[in-house]
């Protein structure tokens, strides 16, 4: 059986300190509960749906995630938001 994607091991490392600070007014990207609660919105924004793509390109951010990260975030959702 394949290992389920987890927030702590697979998703949290994708969020930089800069990302966490930038989004702190909306929700806490370092918090499992906040990311789970906003997963659909985060998934849309990392794909550039519903607003500017996140994270923003330099100099404001490290730039959009590669497709492999986006796919892993989608897998985490599909796996049932494992901690």
Question: Any overview of this molecule?
Answer:
With 83 residues, this protein is mainly α. 46% of the residues lie in helices and 0% in strands. The chain is built from five helices and no strands. The two termini are 18 Å apart.
- State the secondary-structure class: mainly alpha
**Tally of DSSP β-strands:** 0
- Average residue pLDDT: 95
Low-pLDDT regions: none
Helix count from the secondary structure assignment: 5
Task: Give the overall form.
Answer: globular
What is the CA-based Rg, rounded? 12 Å
| Helical fraction | 40-55%
User: Alpha-carbon distance between the termini?
Assistant: 18 Å
The largest sheet, given as strand count, sense and whether it forms a barrel, is: none
Strand content: under 5%
What string gives the helices and strands in order?
A: HHHHH
Compact summary:
This protein has 83 residues and is mainly alpha-helical. Helix content is 46%, strand content 0%.
Brief descriptors of the model:
83 residues, globular, mainly alpha, single chain, 5 helices
Topology:
Layout: H1 7-11, H2 17-23, H3 32-37, H4 39-46, H5 67-78
């Amino acid at each position: 059986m394949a290992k389920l994607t987890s927030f702590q091991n697979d998703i949290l490392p994708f969020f930089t300190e800069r990302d966490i600070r930038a989004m702190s007014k909306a929700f806490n990207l370092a918090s499992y509960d906040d990311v789970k609660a906003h997963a659909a919105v985060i998934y849309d924004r990392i794909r550039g749906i519903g607003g500017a793509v996140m994270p923003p390109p330099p100099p404001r951010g490290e730039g959009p995630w590669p497709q492999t990260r986006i796919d892993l975030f989608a897998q985490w959702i599909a796996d049932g938001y494992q901690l």
